[in-house]
Specification:
The complex is a heterodimer of chains A (155) and B (65). Chain A is mostly helical. Chain A has helices spanning 2-11, 20-32, 36-40, 44-64, 77-82, 87-94, 97-103, 112-117, 121-148. Chain A has one domain. In chain A, 67% of the residues lie in helices and 0% in strands. In chain A, helix 4 runs antiparallel to helix 9 (121-148). Chain B has two helices and no strands. Chain B has helices at 2-23, 27-59. Helices cover 85% and strands 0% of the residues of chain B. Chain B is mostly helical and 65 residues long. Chain B has one domain. Chain B is elongated and about 55 Å long. Chain B starts with a helix and ends in a 6-residue tail after the last helix. The chains are: A mainly alpha (155), B mainly alpha (65).
Chain lengths: 155, 65
């Protein structure tokens, strides 16, 4: 009985019906910082899990590529996937100085020669890209949670 | 081979768990669904690799061209 009550409570939308403005704001927050959308909607454990999992994946990929996998190039599809991560990608694309000063490195688009010398450059690109694309799924999940409730899809 | 598994298995595991967490609320369900997705993905890749290996090893499809 308690489980049924809890289950029906979990199905309730987190926001009043039709509150698209707040739902969009939640979605934007979830895009900027992975897990923040769920955190703001009261699913704090899940938000923390998304934050740790996605930031961990992104940072692991960035480190695997020797901190060179995130850069802007118009015809580079991976960059668009990485943009799904929000803040870290935006910071890396906009101003590289804080990170380069902190780590004593310069970040730049690898040339063909240096790219070939980095054994895990492609894997690092894949990690960062998948982290960004997973965050898009998380953003849509937070949006659904806000507007239509977020209980289990299948039981 | 081992390096490939070590590089890609964690990514598959994280992706499976995150995807499961977007669809379910209960921790136990998330873990089971994530593990199921992970095993199906890795098992499918290993199976596909085995099929490709067996074809290239015994059937020599380049001879068909």
């Amino acid at each position: 009985m308690d489980a049924e009550k809890r289950s029906s409570a979990e199905r309730e939308p987190a926001l009043p019906p039709g509150d698209w403005g707040k739902a969009l704001a939640i979605g934007f927050a979830a895009w900027l910082v992975p897990g923040l959308g769920h955190w703001l909607l009261g699913r704090r454990g899940k938000g923390l899990f998304f934050l740790v999992a996605l930031w961990g994946t992104f940072l692991a990929g960035w480190a695997l590529s020797d901190f060179r996998a995130v850069f802007w190039k118009p015809d580079r599809i991976a960059t668009y996937g990485q943009l799904g991560m929000g803040v870290p990608t935006l910071v890396l694309l906009a101003g590289k100085e804080p990170f380069s000063y902190a780590l004593g490195r310069t970040f730049y688009e690898p040339t063909g020669a240096s790219e070939n010398l980095l054994p895990h450059y492609d894997v690092g690109t894949l990690y960062t890209c998948v982290a960004g694309l997973l965050n898009v799924v998380v953003v849509l999940g937070a949006f659904r949670l806000a507007l239509w409730g977020g209980a289990d899809v299948h039981r | 081979m081992l390096e490939t598994v070590l590089l890609f298995a964690p990514l598959c595991l994280v992706a499976s768990l995150v995807y499961a967490a977007t669809r379910h609320d209960r921790t136990s369900t998330i873990l089971w669904e994530g593990l199921h997705l992970f095993l199906m993905t890795v098992g499918g890749l290993v199976g596909l690799g085995a099929v490709i290996y067996l074809i290239s090893r015994f059937l020599q499809p380049t001879l068909w061209l």
